[in-house]
Amino acid sequence: EDGYNVTFCSHFPDSLHDVTEGLRTTLQHADIVLTTGGVSMGECDYLKEALPAVGASVQFGRVHMKPGKPTTFATFSSGQLFFGLPGNPVSAMVTYKLFVLPALRVWEGRDPSPSVMRVELPETRNLDPRPEYMRAVYKNGSVELTGGQCSSRLLSMKSANLLLKLPPRSETCTSVEKGTLVEAMIIGRL
After folding, report:
1. What is the H or E stretch that residue 91 is in?
2. How far apart are alpha carbons 83 and 107 in whole angstroms?
3. Single pTM value for the model
């Protein structure tokens, strides 16, 4: 979709040895490694433990945002990059747009800045303690949310062409009213 050559390497079985060896093999064939799942806090989430074993320097292993909290990024002395995206499909897609796509653009020497616009929030929303990226569709001059916004709801991404960025909740601001102008990252055709 974004014009990059992708090679699917493997599904790693749920053991530290298999994940470590799978990463080691994958790194022999790729400049940038992108995984989904295995970076959270589950008993079979071994990627964060395997990364140092293959020479990675973990730059971050959590992000303060919703969805996508367990996103992991690591670098290698060889210049290779690793992105460990969450296993929930929406979280993976949102963090791909926010972290991976800009890095790919920098890798190519292009401007990494996403296209953004300001739009009216289509409904009043209570704020989360973390900044939140809500899936929405811009059509015929108006914006609508794409339904339920939980990170496992894949249909919320299917028609989305915008990610609306809501600020984190604070002592003075616990909700954002319908009609408030918010930043919207363009992720598809308008």
Report:
1. helix 89-95
2. 14
3. 0.93
